[in-house]
Design brief:
Chain A is an alpha/beta fold. Chain A has nine helices and 17 strands. Chain A is 28% helix and 31% strand. Chain A is globular. With 485 residues, chain B is an alpha/beta fold. In chain B, the strands form four sheets. Chain B has a five-stranded parallel beta sheet. A five-stranded parallel beta sheet of chain B has the order 6-14-7-8-9. In chain B, strands 10, 11, 12 and 13 form a four-stranded antiparallel beta sheet that branches. The C terminus of chain B is likely disordered. Classes of the chains: A alpha/beta (281), B alpha/beta (485).
Chain lengths: 281, 485
Amino acid sequence: MFKIVKREQFSPVTYLWKLEAPDIAKAAQPGHFVIIRHGDGGERVPLTIADFDRQAGTITLVIQAVGKTTTALMNLKEGEYLDDLAGPLGHARHFDKVKKVVCVGGGLGVAPTYPQLRQYKQNGAHTISIVGFRSKDLMFWIDRFKAESDELIIATDDGSFGVKGLVTGPLQEVLDKNPDVDEVLAIGPAIMMKACVAVTKPRNVKTIVSLNPVMVDGTGMCGGCRVTVGGKMAFACVDGPEFDGLQVDFDELLARAKRFDSFERESMRRLREQHECHLPK
Amino acid sequence: MEAAPKPKKTIKTIAKTKTAMPEQDPAARARNWSEVTLGYSEEQAVGEAARCIQCKKPGCIAGCPVAINIPGFIKAVEDRDFRKAYDVLAADNVLPAICGRVCPQETQCEAVCIVGNKLEPVGIGRIERFVGDMALKNGWSLATSVKPNGHKAAMIGSGPASITCAVDLARAGVDVTIYEALHTAGGVLKYGIPEFRLPKKLIDRELEALKGLGVKVVTNAIIGRLFTIPQLMQEMGYESAFIGVGAGFPNLMGIPGEGFNGIFSANEYLTRVNLMRAYQHPHSDTPTGMGKKVAVIGAGNTAMDACRVSIRMGAEEVYCVYRRTKKESPARAEEVHHAEEEGVKFNWLTAPVRILGDERGWVKAMECIRMELGEPDASGRARPVPVKGSEFLFEVDTIVYAIGTSANPILAQTTPGLRLNKRGYIDVSPDTQMTSIPGVFAGGDIVTGGATVILAMGAGRKAARAMLQYMGLEVTAEPAQQAKS
């Protein structure tokens, strides 16, 4: 049982949990993920760690209500307990010495980008951050990004804040202006990471992506998270979750992401029927 | 006054065949998740026990990897002293209800049963199951008065190897903590073996016995990530540790098309169904994502489980595809027989060479090739050789790979100095199960590669003895006969 010591609602569908998990906080590094599970018959959901505080013994997760589980978990209140939390999982990020880096975070991916950005900054890199949201009311952690970024660009799909459009526009401009960028980190929806790689690949800029495919155990047992990288099959849970973006087969990744779509839609429909009035439309 | 001695039993006076095991009708059970075999009644168990002739030099004990006093517990069943039967059995095997169901007795105890030389061997496994179930029904437990001795040991993984090791150590007074990566304990018993072969409630109840001995179980603890082995040994005060994590890293074939949707490792498929209870979806959250026409590649026990799960999940057609013949298939004969009865179709001498998908990325067919058997290979089995030009298309929408597992890399990557063998499994001393790291022992599938529950238990038992010695504790209760490994 893991206590939710702090809970924030970022938007109608996005929320933050700070969970009491001293052992995980102690072992966590940027790049790691956890698996959460709750309730009888609950599914196992992988989430990238958005932050950790070793002193306080907490880890932070930012969660978007996209499926049945993440929607139902919005009902857990501060002070209540999550049944299962396993981690840290995956390889911790290995930071090469870099002088100039671009950190691209999209939507929910903004959260796990943050501890990496902070680490780059601590390592002495010049940090340029590009964060993208669908609209202004979904934005979060802008202050945190400001504090760790030498330059910060905010993009919204609908233009309600900052640059109008996707993160790839600003990424292109930043790379044009800064030919000395050593590497790009991109974390967000698979389609966004694919689009970022489409920008960086022709320029041959090292690009790190963090993949979050469907997985069951998260420890290498099921192989459901397999992804083709550089022509070889890898397991995101034990070989990743971070990979050389220029080598990832994104088309396969996007197709595999649809494996359970029909079931998820059905589960959501049932959840809405059960709790008609409590859930966001 | 002494009772008159019973007439001496001989091979000539006992029933010639095993008492049949009551089973659910194949047509009915193919549509439910209840146990296939129903277990002996008291009369059936006593009747079968009466077939044991109580050999002076029994073969069965040495045939058992944990050296159960088989004639001893069977005698007690024959005498209708079931509590005594349980005590004799539980002295060597803490999971009798589980082992009575999933042990391959036909290649172990029953294979060397003296009665079996002339007639059908004694149904040892069936009697064991009867006693195990009796104990669960009556709440008999292992609890003995354990005197704590201040020593601490950690088990990594909570499958059969670790459980056995934990019990033996706890009985000697060691403070034992089991670390399990998943959200529930039991390892392969929970995620691998389906409900209709091994009901999950039964596992939990048999595991309850551990708590009675003071064994602690910590779930959601991935050793190598949450704590490393050096941390356990140096910072957390464990004097010794046992690695029993199984070999749960699924093998694929490496043929083109394995990224298409609808292709599962048996681990993923069975974990979704057994551990995550996909058979109750949408009441449970996890679906299988399977289709209607399923091909299971491989013919071991895991493959049979995957086939029989598919039938129950409502697949219209289920095929077992194997590159050799029925004779070479590694599954227990009983499992193949049950699968056949339930409507699984077998494609022997067939191997996939490539998988074809549709434009949306879902499997639509396998290209297969026919095989013929050639000279024996390193395993002693006839080597399958492709028949040139025999390729054909096999239309399926779901493929399950049940072609074995490899060692999970997490512990090896995070434990400096842990020596592996050429196949990637952990190297241990054959006498003690100790790894290249002093105080760290290992056993079960992570040492041998995929094997059976009872072999893992045998390794856990052997390691426990060596761990007690390593911690400077006296090893009492020398097993009557050491099992051959």
